[in-house]
What does this fold into?
Amino acid sequence: MRDSTSGALERVNMAFIAAIVAVATIGGFMFGYDSGVINGAQKGLESAFNLGRLGIGVNVGAILVGSSIGAFVAGRLSDLVGRRGVMMLAAALFLVSALAAGAAPVSSIFILARILGGLGVGAASVISPVYVSEVTPAAIRGRLSSVQQVMIITGLTGAFLANYLLAHFAGGSTAILWMGEPAWRWMFWLQAMPASVYFAALLVIPESPRFLVIKRRDDEARNVLSRLFGEAAAERKIGEIRASLASDQHRPKLSDLVDKTTGKIRPILWTGVGLAVFQQLVGINVVFYYGASLWEAVGFAENDALQINILSGVLSIGACLFTIATVDRIGRKPLLLIGSAGMTLTLATVAWAFSTAVTAANGAVTLPGSNGLVALAAANLYTVFFNGSWGPVMWVMLGEMFPNQIRGSGLAVSGFAQWIANAAVSVSFPTLALTPGLAPTYLGYAAFAAISFVFVQRMVHETRGRELEDMRG
It folds into this structure.
């Protein structure tokens, strides 16, 4: 359906599409919850497993090992067993991880459980946006794909809120809550509920029609496309999808990422990898994973630090809603440029505020005068800029920018790069926070934000309103 006007939208089954998007993006919620739950559990881990700073970094970063593998494997696996099949596997991994992490008797078991959860996070992070992009009309694909980021932040905020409430009612994250178990363990066990809902809901949505055409299951694809866009459009769309595949009709494979004419890696892959890596090098997951510890480190009480996390989550959701309203109107590239500029300024401000920190005789660290409020305001503005741009738009673009033939493979490599960058930033932060310190570390994130502005200007091409079959690599 190359007609992206409002008239075309009148012929699509929006109720069916909305239901599909709602189910698929529960994966985003699980992604967010699984990533954010660790934020309030670090004191419990340190106490239960007798961890030092390096140990905390390893336990926190364990999920990222699984995520990088999950993202790579899921991209390729989705070309073999389908987008829905991979999402169902991710849901099962979320459930097992939640139960095992909460019950872990030693650090090694906890790390293994978090790696399993990471496999689910990595899979959901790349496949949910692809699935949404493959079942939605081009005219509103950006806003519907952006729902993924709203759900990620909702999951994060849900984890922050659950952490706060559990710690509050128990009297602290390490205090006993129910059944003789401390609150921090219940932070993980609660995740089993949405994981179960996610798995059950996936049973009732169809497979991606583009995957079905790739697998030459045209009758099934026709049925799905008819329910989405009507019978006349379904037949035309099958032809367009088939025409967008390799001329010899071979099934997608990793080697398709190499241009057969030049023998070089396709430029579109470098753009995808760059978008994925820069989204992490600006340091966003330092806020997600270490927010509570970070604010405690500069003088805020644990209760206040957990509430700050909730505030950041609410502001982030608001920023994502802004993106949903604008991404199909002003485009992907302008939002990325605005986000890069805003993050550069706000991160530099946070770095300045932390550079004024004062250490008292008893070792307590504080920010003098109003600098604590300046740091808090700048950090929250930073999350607003990120979640109004790079947070959702990167996933939107990865889900739509690759041609049909290389979408799974392109996502595999880009998703793997994204999670490796995530791991590098997250695992290194506890050490960098000590040497060279918070101020230089945040200044480094600001520098990457500035570089990302130049990258977007030179490497990123607008995809707003273009059909997936029209993407060129």
Remarks:
- The CA atoms of residues 134 and 208 lie 6 Å apart.
- DSSP finds 20 helices and four strands in the chain.
- Residues 1-10 have pLDDT under 50 and may be disordered.
